């Protein structure tokens, strides 16, 4: 039995705890095999994706509205079908403007976004082809298939699951809250010297341990950005992340995209804002039963680990492949431009049971205090002349 790092959060059941113990043992072995110290991104990768045991590799509930249904967090497509219905409009425009027909979604969660997009594109009269889903989580595939068969039965035959990416893809790519679920390296500048934060096994539990690290391109970039963004303000300690996995992923997707567009929706900031004085303790967050906290060692495999997206890096990674930056906007602006209020207007206000939750969800998706400002949409394209209506106002590409 391991010493548990439980904080004051709800305690999981015996089966879940056994799974977490098995993952703890696996990671402990990896630490030993690595000579006693594992970089944090390797820890995060195992905690999220170790087959059968990691948070996304195992059977945790993950998405849902409330802690008492066993879920940990809620995403926009889970909040309301209006998100998918609205997103379908720019997706349809991108298909039309690029003359392509196929769709590909990364990290499709429960399948609600896929089902909603299929139904909405059909309702818009789009003659679309295949909807391919790529997910690292085998367990979620089953849930996705069930959801799509239930919510979009006549269109489910268009959906396929890919085990590997094609070398080329023409169509529209979508990824909601996928970039934030990618492993990050933790790096810390202490009195001017950079260290990498890793994980060790100490006194029967995981602990952080910082090691001096030589400067690489990513760290140098951060070093400069911190100094520029903070007016030479010096920090005793500045902890942040580098996002190599998300950058590599963006490059791969934009290279694969030979014609069409790729939309990524996620929380985060441009580089100057990301490496700001107020964020000197990193954006790494843990979600367990709708409580956010900062202990990544709590119940490994049973809680979500996530970090904010550094959108300037993502924009550079995409455009380095030759793709165009189609736009960068707050989620609120993007959804407003895409017509979310028209979509809401199509509902009957007298149907209180349907209308009230929809109106509440729209408020959450748009409100500056909720998801409207923190969440951004970044999009890349090839072969689309001009821009999309959804980026017609409030495009913040210049801030990247
Ligand atoms: C926070 S969940 C978001 C799920 C869903 N898009 C939603 O909004 O509800 C992150 C998802 O991204 C997936 N994911 C992470 N990295 C991935 C990658 N490289 N390729 C495909 N899926 C990935 C995870 O398996 C997980 O299903």
Blueprint of the fold:
Blueprint (H helix, E strand, L loop, with lengths): L13 H20 L4 E2 H10 L26 H4 L1 H18 L3 E5 L5 H12 L7 E4 L3 H14 L7 E3 L7 E8 L8 E6 L2 E10 L2 E8 L4 H13 L7 E6 L1 H13 E13 L1 H4 L10 E4 L2 E3 L10 E3 L2 E2 H9 L4 E7 H7 L2 H6 L6 H15 L8 E8 L18
Parallel strand pairs: 2-3, 2-5, 3-4, 5-10, 10-14
Antiparallel strand pairs: 1-7, 6-7, 6-9, 7-8, 10-16, 11-12, 11-13, 15-16
The structure holds S-adenosylmethionine.
Q: What features would you highlight for this structure?
A:
13 helices; alpha/beta; 400 residues; five-stranded antiparallel beta sheet; binds S-adenosylmethionine; Rossmann fold; 36% helix; single chain; eight-stranded mixed beta sheet
CATH topology of one domain: Rossmann fold
Q: How many angstroms does the end-to-end distance come to?
A: 48 Å
Strand percent estimate? 15-25%
Helix count from the secondary structure assignment: 13
Low-confidence stretches at least 5 residues in length (pLDDT < 50)? Answer: none
What's the overall average pLDDT, rounded? 92
Number of DSSP strands? 16
Organism: Candidatus Burkholderia verschuerenii
Pfam families: Methyltransf_28
Protein name: SAM-dependent methyltransferase, MidA
GO biological process, one term: methylation
């Amino acid at each position: 039995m391991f010493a548990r790092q439980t904080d004051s959060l709800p305690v999981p059941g015996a089966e879940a705890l056994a799974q977490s113990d098995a993952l703890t043992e696996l990671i402990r072995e990896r630490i030993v095999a690595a000579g006693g110290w594992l970089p944090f991104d390797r820890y995060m990768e195992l905690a999220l994706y170790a087959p059968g045991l990691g948070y996304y590799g195992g059977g945790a509930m993950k998405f849902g509205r409330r802690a008492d249904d066993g879920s940990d967090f809620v995403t926009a497509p889970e909040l309301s079908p209006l998100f998918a219905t609205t997103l379908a409009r720019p997706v349809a425009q991108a298909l039309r403007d690029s003359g392509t027909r196929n769709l590909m979604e990364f990290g499709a969660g429960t399948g609600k976004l896929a089902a909603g997009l299929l139904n909405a594109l059909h309702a818009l009269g789009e003659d679309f082809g295949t909807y391919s889903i790529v997910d690292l989580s085998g367990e979620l595939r089953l849930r996705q298939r069930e959801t799509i068969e239930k919510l979009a039965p006549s269109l489910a035959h268009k959906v396929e699951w890919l085990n590997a990416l094609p070398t080329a893809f023409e169509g529209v790519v979508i990824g909601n809250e996928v970039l934030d679920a990618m492993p990050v390296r933790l790096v810390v500048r202490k009195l001017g010297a950079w260290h990498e934060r890793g994980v060790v096994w100490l006194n029967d539990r995981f602990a952080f341990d910082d090691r001096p690290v030589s400067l690489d391109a990513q760290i140098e970039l951060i070093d400069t950005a911190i100094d520029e963004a903070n007016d030479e303000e010096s920090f005793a300690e500045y902890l942040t992340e580098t996002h190599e996995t998300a950058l590599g992923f963006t490059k791969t997707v934009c290279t694969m995209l030979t014609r069409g567009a790729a939309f990524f929706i996620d929380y985060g900031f441009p580089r100057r804002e990301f490496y700001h004085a107020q964020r000197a303790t990193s954006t790494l967050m843990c979600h367990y039963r709708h409580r956010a906290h900062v202990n990544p060692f709590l119940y490994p495999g049973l809680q979500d680990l996530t970090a904010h997206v550094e959108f300037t890096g993502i924009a550079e990674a995409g455009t380095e492949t030759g793709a165009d930056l189609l736009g960068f906007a707050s989620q609120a602006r993007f959804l407003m431009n895409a017509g979310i209020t028209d979509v809401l207007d199509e509902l009957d206000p007298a149907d209180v049971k349907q209308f009230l939750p929809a109106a509440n969800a729209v408020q959450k998706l748009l409100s500056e205090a909720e998801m409207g400002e923190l969440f951004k949409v970044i999009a890349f394209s090839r072969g689309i002349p001009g821009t999309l209506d959804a980026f017609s106002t409030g495009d913040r590409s210049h801030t990247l």
